[in-house]
Amino acid sequence: MSLPLTADQTYSAITLPAATATARTLLTAYAKTITIHVRNTGSTNAITALRYRRYLRDADTVPGPWIAVTASLPIAAGASWEMQISDDCAWEIEVWLTSTSGTTADLSVVGV
Asked: What is the chain written as a DSSP string?
């Protein structure tokens, strides 16, 4: 038996300008376990930095601290990266992606 998803959102074809952090906010709706998936859809340049922070409540104006991701970076052109966060709870997460030379990406979250 599969559990119904409480979080399921995707941003496709995000343009990452050279050396400029690009943010997207993903609704996690208090899912206990989430998986964040990033796919570098560009043909040549890597995604070189990734960080995220949590917002505990809907319309919260005070975010949690930034959490920098260093494992498995850079994400090469055409490659994917994935991370699971368990036993945590937030209304939404803000993810920032950076490419030193510029690229495009897809960003998704699912959770239960």
From this structure: -PPPPSEEEEEEEEEE-BT--EEEEEE-TT-SSEEEEEEE--SSPPB-EEEEEEE-STT-SS----EEE-TT-SB-TT-EEEEEE-S---SEEEEEEEBSS-EEEEEEEEE-
The sign of the torsion formed by the CA atoms of 9, 70, 75, 33 equals negative
pTM above 0.85, yes or no: yes
* Cβ within 8 Å of residue 110, ≥6 positions away: 5, 7, 8, 34, 35, 37
Dump pLDDT digits (tens) for 86-106.
998 899 999 999 999 999 999
